[in-house]
Amino acid sequence: MSAIVPVYRIARPCQAGAASPSLASMLARIFPDRFVPVLLATILLASLLPVRGAAVPIAQGASTAAIVFLFFLNGVRLPRDEVLHGIRNWKLQGGAFLFCFGAMALLGLGAQLAAAPWLPATLALGFLFLGILPSTVQSATAASSLAGGNVAASVVAAALLNLTGVIASPLLFAALAGSAGAIHGEAALRIVAILLLPFVAGQFAQRWFRPWVLAHRGLATFMDRTAIAIAVYVAFSAAVVAGIWQLLDGREIGVVFALVAVLLALSFGGAWLFGRLLGLARADRITLLFSGAQKSIAVGAPLAATLFPPATAGMVLVPILVYHMAQLILSAWIAPVLNRAGQV
Fold first, then answer.
1. Assessment of whether the complete model's pTM goes beyond 0.85
2. Is 186 exposed, middle or buried (0-12, 13-18, 19+ CB in 10 A)?
């Protein structure tokens, strides 16, 4: 298996005479993953300069094209042969599946019910939407690598969860959300046309494109993160135009952050305890921790844009945006701690 390149960057010592070395170190600690400030900048840009008027159809077309490209690229990148081989570790892969789509979906449903008295219904629904999403791919694998986990199994787990999530996440959301999650014919067709077909096409095109993607990991990562940023910008722009910042006050934003903090504690702590309950080896428990507890904005943003009207999609995305940024920071902090603990 080709080596995994961690997405987390450790700040290099500044050269003599470089300006503000302490600032660079501080930023590296606050934002261990470079995608965190990109998402923050995207939300800020959408808040200050949202897409309006005649530019909306153009922006939505660009967002759809970016989503199609993103899922094609994901299909190219996910290692189908390695997935089939890794299914043999049924205890780890089954545990990751049960925690990601079972325990996390129930945690999301619980968070939605807890948020209902305090938040607008659409925003509360975003916690359930967060819970049914699959795991991340690059960041879960990179965190497992840094923590001393089973990297090969992490690649397989992330691939399996994302392969399954393209179909399972919308169905699970529809089952748990009731009338609010009803998937009508048009939405189902959009899921197939914009998410599933490009993903399947990417799987079939692996023979020609995967060697190039593996040889240009940095460029491929830049392209898929750009596609995610476009989808988030367009969705959040519609929410801003619809008055999201007038609908939310400081108390409600505080509720979102508090619930995300609780979810992070329960998801990461629960995944670690679940691995122990299954009797997994330490390296496999680390893989289960990051594959089970992390959630993917790469699937969340396109799926929200497919399932919901633009203004609604932006509101639904708020919890997963906060959770995604927080999980990257938390994972980058705890991965070295797990690594050191495993070497004692």
1. no
2. exposed
